[in-house]
Each structure stands twice: as structure tokens, then as C-alpha cells.
Amino acid sequence: MSSRAKTVLLAGLIPCLTATVGCMEQVVAQAGADRTVEAGATVTLDGSGSTPKDQGRLNYLWEVAQGPSVTFADARARITTFTAPREPHETIFRIRLTATYVDLSGKATPSNSDTDEVVIRVRADRSAPEAGSTTDEAANENAAPEEEAGTDGLADEKPTAAIRSTEPT
């Protein structure tokens, strides 16, 4: 067979192989836009913007890259959720999405994967007590100080200065 015939034969096979096997598109992960949420809110993470768009050709993995641990409804789903923690201070999460190409045989191709991160800011929960305090302490924080009653039923006066002894030692 001549080299020209081989070239024509190969040129005819390439579209056939492409139609049978499919082209391996470069993966681009899209974890969504950064946002701020209320404490206790359900946070939805959506990797639908990742490409290639054929969701059957991508594996997804959601992980906390920075911040406290959370439980995802399904860390391997294209779309998942978690509950924002109720903390007395702002909490910041960096959530990483890894999207990995899966060929038609179902084999993941780690060499064709991509990651993207989304920042989730959780507003402080003003109803949560500060760390180290109890709810009773927090409730009494602004209360007027109580006076101790003496034997006569009147409040005892508290000294404002210490008394020092002048006796020689």
C-alpha cells in the first residue's frame, strides 16, 4: 500500500474513532461565585458551570480547603449542600471543587482534571454566646450589680481604699 493510500485510510478512520470514542475535552472546574450567607443557612454549591458540560463525563469532589469541617449532603455530586455553622464570629470557608474527566469506559482521567475554589463567608450569629461564656453570663452581662444586704437590711458599703497598718514589724 502506498503512503498516499495509508494517509487517506487514516484520514477516514480519525472521524470514525472520534465518533466512537469521543473527543477528550479539557476539563475546567467552576465552583460558582463567592458569597456571604447567614448563620444556619443551607448553602448550595453548584459545579454545573464546569466543562465539558456532559455531566456523565465528569466526576466531582467537594472539599473544605480552609475553614472548619462541614458535612456535605453528597461530596461527589455536581450540586451539593451544607449547613452554615452558627458561630458568634464571622466564619470564612474556601471550598474546593475538583472536576475529573471520565472516559466512555467509565475510567477517570486524573491527568485531565481541574480545581476551582469558592469563598463562603458566614455572618456572625448574634444569638450565639461568645466562647467561654454561658448563656446566664451573657444575659446578666448588662445587669446592674447587686448590693449585699447587711444585718440592718441596708446595703453594706464597700471600702474604696485599702487600710494599711502603720505598726512597726
Secondary-structure map:
Elements: H1 3-21, E1 35-37, E2 42-46, E3 58-66, E4 79-83, E5 91-102, E6 108-122, H2 135-140
Parallel strand pairs: 1-6
Antiparallel strand pairs: 2-4, 3-5, 5-6
* Unreliable spans: 8-21, 135-166
Task: Give the class from helix and strand content and strand pairing.
Answer: alpha+beta
**SSE string, helix = H, strand = E?**
HEEEEEEH
Total DSSP E strands: 6
* CATH C-level of one domain: Mainly Beta
Q: DSSP helix count?
A: 2
Report the sheet-strand fraction: 25-35%
User: What profile does the largest beta sheet have?
Assistant: 4 strands, mixed
**Helical residue percent band:** 10-25%
Read across the widest sheet, the strand sequence of neighbours is 1-6-5-3
Give the rounded overall mean pLDDT: 76
CATH topology of one domain: Immunoglobulin-like
CATH superfamily of one domain: Immunoglobulins
Q: What CATH architecture label of one domain applies?
A: Sandwich
End-to-end separation in angstroms reads 121 Å
Q: What is the overall shape?
A: elongated
Give the radius of gyration: 33 Å
Question: Please, could you describe this protein's structure?
Answer:
The chain is of the alpha+beta class and 169 residues long. The chain has a domain at 25-122: Immunoglobulin-like, CATH 2.60.40.10. It has two helices and six strands. It has helices at residues 3-21, 135-140; strands at 35-37, 42-46, 58-66, 79-83, 91-102, 108-122. The strands form two sheets. The chain has a four-stranded mixed sheet, with no helix packed on it. β5 (91-102) and β6 (108-122) form a beta hairpin. The radius of gyration is 33 Å and the shape is elongated. Mean pLDDT is 76; it is low at 8-21 and 135-166.
